[in-house]
Amino acid sequence: xxxxxxxxxxxxxxxxxxxxxxxxxxxxxxxxxxxxxxxxxxxxxxxxxxxxxxxxxxxxxxxxxxxxxxxxxxxxxxxxxxxxxxxxxxxxxxxxxxxxxxxxxxxxxxxxxxxxxxxxxxxxxxxxxxxxxxxxxxxxxxxxxxxxxxxxxxxxxxxxxxxxxxxxxxxxxxxxxxxxxxxxxxxxxxxxxxxxxxxxxxxxxxxxxxxxxxxxxxxxxxxxxxxxxxxxxxxxxxxxxxxxxxxxxxxxxxxxxxxxxxxxxxxxxxxxxxxxxxxxxxxxxxxxxxxxxxxxxxxxxxxxxxxxxxxxxxxxxxxxxxxxxxxxxxxxxxxxxxxxxxxxxxxxxxxxxxxxxxxxxxxxxxxxxxxxxxxxxxxxxxxxxxxxxxxxxxxxxxxxxxxxxxxxxxxxxxxxxxxxxxxxxxxxxxxxxxxxxxxxxxxxxxxxxxxxxxxxxxxxxxxxxxxxxxxxxxxxxxxxxxxxxxxxxxxxxxxxxxxxxxxxxxxxxxxxxxxxxxxxxxxxxxxxxxxxxxxxxxxxxxxxxxxxxxxxxxxxxxxxxxxxxxxxxxxxxxxxxxxxxxxxxxxxxxxxxxxxxxxxxxxxxxxxxxxxxxxxxxxxxxxxxxxxxxxxxxxxxxxxxxxxxxxxxxxxxxxxxxxxxxxxxxxxxxxxxxxxxxxxxxxxxxxxxxxxxxxxxxxxxxxxxxxxxxxxxxxxxxxxxxxxxxxxxxxxxxxxxxxxxxxxxxxxxxxxxxxxxxxxxxxxxxxxxxxxxxxxxxxxxxxxxxxxxxxxxxxxxxxxxxxxxxxxxxxxxxxxxxxxxxxxxxxx
Length: 828
Ligand code: ATP
Hints:
The protein is of the alpha+beta class. The two termini are 59 Å apart. Residues 2-7 and 367-396 have low confidence and may be disordered. The site of adenosine-5'-triphosphate (ATP) has 16 residues, from strand 26, strand 29, strand 32 and helix 21.
């Protein structure tokens, strides 16, 4: 959509294309290799987001449009054209598409041009084969030359070529060759970007320090790039960008000027009127939200005036215009890093290499921007190029992928029957996972049984006869509405898909049918109706059918509870999200029997107790909420239900349901079995059927929430690290005993320390690799304390205790070690 051309303030539209053929191992962007089936639905969603913005008069004409990602050239050109068509553009708007060399064939480029694209940004990275290999790029050096020729010949107004400095195995000579190859092209690119490879936490590159680029080497190559490009007639524009005059990227310029823009698509950021916001991160969720007519916005922030001023300067100092001299102090440390001329302070080449050190000295209060518009804008949320990582930002990038990867890599959770190709939706808990899961269940048991005199435990059978499930209502009611997609024939749970097929994006489905979720089997050698048995789909019924047994054997009286932890089985239609919804899982349930008149009071009591339990074990308050069910959501037995919900990467979802089940269950079983399942109160001489308040949590699902909430990335000693900030009570190991070296002389004391601690804690013992690596390994699995035995320990009988989160270390005598760790544990 191109509209009439009045001159107006620059306005950018950034379209995020999240699809990629393969993930480069240095990349931490919101990009996906397994979501190609969503392309059409995603395109529709982008068009819808644009259309709604236009209808709401919330989208000025764009002076620049940028398709970034991901790999925008993975999107078929007609889909890209459909999105572009929905963007209102000013006459002469710049429209850029990022393109991989292997995609830049004449046909595709021609279609782009006809769709209105004016500029291509070619992601070349290097022209040297072994460097491309090291970066995990799939194109060849030959493809680069061919692509550059095609782009230059296709008649775009301008184009750009991207390089990366410092890939594994790259030598100075390789880098010079990439630059020389670029300049030797028949038609060299009029704009060049050269980014230093950065190690993003959570990427495969981060896990492989041998391939981390060296700062000095990168600096040297940057200086080479600047010298070579300047000599060839390019003008330095911004830290990583050089252009021939007239070929500056307008879209980049907009960000550097802290201008306004609108991000379209999953994970895209927007900035207008001093407010910035971002869309939900995954394409699945983005498609779902728009198909359901909801806003795709995932969060927003408003900057203070001071923040805006500072960010404007921080952006501008990176450009060739620099900042007013008054914005930087006259500090000898800045000598050689900035040039002060004509009232502006501009980074020297050396200063560009140390831009962050200069930025921290900016004084937003001391300088205005010298007449340029200062409308407020982002540093971290630049849609293109993505900003350098900041170490204190929480990990947003594919948190789910990172946690799943960690679980597998470190032995928390394995796909079940993996050597046979895996059995869908079943998982095995590995050496670390089993500890964590056990700790979650123990923490629950301690809170719900051990520390209470009004609750007792039970461990009932998993197999039970149909009569139980007939009476409980499960045979009739324990169903989910099942629909088939008419397009791709995938089967879905209707209430979980918001009317859009997550596989193909279609909105056409068969009529919903009720599908019973219970696993049916046969007990004994005959497979006839009389032998039918069910695997329990919840632990609760075991408590109801044992009500009288427990009452008589424990002499409890209402209000009292029966608690149980154990496996349950549901033939879920759409098991998903790792261990969030599986067919075999563990539950932690408690049935609290109360006089009917007290039911509401106890319901409220348990809501509060259960909410506090998660907080006490370290789930941050902003990731936890209580959601009361609407009356039409309530189960057939419930007089009131509320869920404790956790903010999962895909949004709020249930951890635990707390329900007032009334007297439904006891009455139903009493009627079906003919037994009296009630209580006679000898004080009031009254007989009544108690009401039941049930807090029902999932152990496996909760364990996953603890992992997601605990996962973090930071930097220690200049190195990125992954750290699981999990509560010490839940950590798979509370302590790691680490002899500094494998030398035999350290072993007797190390073994003594181990034997001292093992009766009290789960202790890991690790002697392999350097101590720094071993600390990282323990941080990654959440071990709160490492105890190191070094050669001084042999002299002073003391060891070093290192704390996971702060990495603080203290020396503790072996004699006082147990007491020290116990007191830390108690205080946790
Ligand atoms: P959902 O709607 O998420 O399937 P539900 O409301 O049917 O769950 P309940 O019957 O209330 O779940 O079960 C109590 C708890 O058991 C849930 O809050 C959840 O933590 C856990 N749970 C239920 N089904 C599963 C499953 N398939 N996989 C893992 N945990 C589950």
